[in-house]
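FORM 7B: Structural annotation worksheet

SECTION A. Query
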Amino acid sequence: MAKITKLDDIVSLCKRRGFIFQSSEIYGGLASCYDYGPLGVELKNNVKKAWWKATVQMRDDIVGLDSSILMHPLVWKASGHTDKFADLIAECKKCNTRTRVDHLKEKIAEQSQEHTEHIAIDTAIAAAGELSNKTCPNCGSVGKFTEPMPFKLMFETQMGANVDDSMTLQLRPETAQGIFANFRNVLDTARVRIPFGIAQIGKSFRNEVTTKAFIFRTREFEQAELEFFCQPGTDEDWFGRWKELRFNWYTDLGIRKENLRLREHSGDELAHYAKACVDVEYKFPFGSGDWQELEGIANRTDYDLRQHQRGMRTLNKWFENGRDLANIELAEEAGDYQSGPLSYFDDEQKARYIPYVIEPSAGIDRSALAFLVDAYDEEQVRSETRNLLRFHPALAPIKVAVFPLVKRDGLPDIAHNICNDLKKHFNCFYDEKGAIGRRYRRQDEAGTPFCVTVDGQTKEDKTVTVRDRDSMDQIRVSTDQMLSYFREKLET
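SECTION B. Predicted structure
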């Protein structure tokens, strides 16, 4: 299988076959924003379905949630985002380009710096160091930078029609906090007991200073996050289990093991809430070192639930302060915090405690890109190059394509009927335009596992030609056996 050396191959295929388009392209495009086309939205939905099936549907100890994008400002105060979620940037005095300070490191250090998505302001200032020997990535000037300054990463919006009742809100930068804010609601209604998890897939927004590499890092993106609540003392065991489960999820869906690795975070790299963290990394065809984060798996301890208990106690002070977060400090943690409203009483242990949390957090857009890259292949077939996507059947946007060999003799009617019957079970595509070889090539590039061709023999013995995408082998299958044949091949 050919190794991809340029991301351009993927970007070109995505535009050509309708996977991904630049957002607002007819107006010149909007940087770092992308639209998923007919094939892309099917691929992305299939990635989400595969995650949901593995994480929620096939387990008895995890339930789902879909929380609001807009949340109370105290949610982000309690989580630490209001005070700490920012990048340190410096502006080039020559070209006025603003760049993250950690991205101004020398090239030899870029790979390790890429692993840090965002760092706290106080840590960033300490790490900024001397900028006199740093080079502007835009104009090449050396040492011509302003003093480092914080750049807030949360988008803001206003809620309320009138000045008196308007409120500044943030678009959520992660989906996790919606889960923590609903911990008690789920506990009281879903008949769950620890250990259990709450899973969510949804949009998040970050006003990134630096975006990169197609859909790898964008300002609007989709996350699949699980918060798995467990008893303190069992957290390290669950952390180990989820590392293995999440790594295997990618390989089970076709990503080659040599392109995946687990990378443990060092102590000075850990987020302020984390006891431990490991990244599932994929070897992308870009960047200084290729290895980039697909998913983070963190032991968040009891940090979030404890913080939200403090946030709940701060509510009255927030109102008294005119709903202004600027001068609000969270309430002091009570000595009996383990008996607070977000605690859990264990009937078997006869004990009350704040649960620890293991969080696997995956980027759906990054996962879709990894599956695209890993599935892409080029091979010589006689005198031409065949481009194809070797998707796992669960991820393929189209499962079966149906063709009449010619547009006469009643073959299109038979092909339409077959396609409509299969559509009840799989996503299918009908095509009667062009030479049959070209139709095969179009479906190869779309990643369609099987093509069905209706020909003259079909009218005689009610069989069709079924072509396999990967091997290009063709066999005859009876029309009354097609459904069971494809179910066996596709429902894996």
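SECTION C. Observations
Residues 38-57 form the longest helix (20 residues). The first strand starts at residue 20 and ends at 22.

SECTION D. Sign-off
Analyst initials: ____
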